Amino acid sequence: MTNWDFGYPATPLMAWLVAGSLKFMVNSIKAKRWAIDLVGYGGMPSTHSAIVSSMAFLVALREGIGHPAFGVALTLAFVVMLDAASLRRQVGKHAEAINKLAREHQLKPLRERVGHHKIEIAAGALVGMCVALAIDWISRYGW
Q1: CB atoms inside a 10 Å sphere around CB 118
Q2: What is the pLDDT of residues 119-134, one digit of tens each?
Q3: What is the Cα–Cα distance from 33 to 30, expressed in whole angstroms?
Q4: 121, 126, 138, 140: least surrounded by Cβ within 10 Å?
Q5: Per residue in 102-115, pLDDT tens?
Q6: Quick check: 48 and 80 in contact, CB under 8 A?
Q7: Which of 46, 38, 28 is nearest to 112 (CA)?
Q8: What is the pTM of this model?
Q9: Residue 143 and residue 133: Cα distance in Å, rounded?
Q10: DSSP per-residue letters across 92-122
Q11: How many CB atoms lie within 10 A of CB 103?
């Protein structure tokens, strides 16, 4: 019987928790209040980027960049990050335009913060890499 490696399932979960907590703190500081209503898509750092980059980086650390799993993880990371910077940003811009019309008709507004700026994506990727390093170090050497 082999030891079960907690690193692979724990890494994206921890990246999500760390990035989400950082995003909540950044939003709260900017809003000068507890920004519970701002939790969700968009903002600094990108949680999606943190999740996918954490797994790609963990696979690179453990299996090497020549391993097929790294290629798959890197491809997924690129797709998610490009989507956050392009398609989801455009959805946010469309929501802004729709909301201008919706105000005239007293309709419920759409969420406008959907995508990310490049710096938010880069920050998310950095968070993901740091989490992957920490999880890998803990699984190798313990607390």
Answers
A1: 12
A2: 999 999 999 999 999 9
A3: 8
A4: 140
A5: 787 777 777 767 66
A6: yes
A7: 38
A8: 0.82
A9: 13
A10: HHHHHHHHHHHHHTTPPPPP---S--HHHHH
A11: 10
